[in-house]
Specification:
It contains two helices and five strands; from the N terminus they run H-E-E-E-H-E-E. The chain is globular. By secondary structure, the protein is an alpha+beta fold. Bound molecules: guanosine-5'-monophosphate (5GP) and zinc ion. The site of guanosine-5'-monophosphate has 13 residues, from strand 2.
């Protein structure tokens, strides 16, 4: 997806503050954090949103979830964190490349 900002980050065409990378996943800090710690876990594959996932993505989605507490702890979130996946326009999604926000360090907040 040539016009996708997160694909450009995956390709190294746009810089990011990297948190983690492996062959399938990338994690990087949000450019506009809403809390002291705010990063995103994304698949390297261009998947538009959670609405565009299928059975073949089961392993990938599982790995994204399993990575979240590991990286959250690494970022100092020892007391817990929020995970947010905005899906579709109705879900407030702005960047149409699947991503999971990991947010924490700002104390309790409402949903
Ligand atoms: P969404 O509303 O789609 O769930 O969230 C998109 C997020 O991507 C926003 O929190 C926004 O700050 C972040 N974002 C948008 N463009 C960039 C960018 O170029 N670099 C980084 N690191 N984050 C971005
Ligand atoms: Zn993309």
């Amino acid at each position: 997806m040539s016009d996708c900002i997160f694909c450009k980050i995956v390709a190294g065409e746009i810089p990011c503050r990297k948190v983690y990378e492996d062959s399938d996943l990338l994690a990087f800090h949000d450019i506009n954090p809403v809390a002291p710690v705010h990063f995103m876990i994304i698949p390297k594959e261009h998947i538009e949103s959670l609405q565009d996932t299928h059975a073949r993505h089961e392993m990938l989605l599982g790995r994204m979830l399993l990575l979240a507490p590991y990286l959250a702890k690494e970022q100092g979130l020892n007391d817990g964190f929020r995970t947010v996946i905005n899906t579709g326009r109705g879900g407030g999604q702005e960047v149409f490349h699947l991503h999971m926000h990991i947010i924490g360090g700002g104390g309790p907040r409402p949903l």
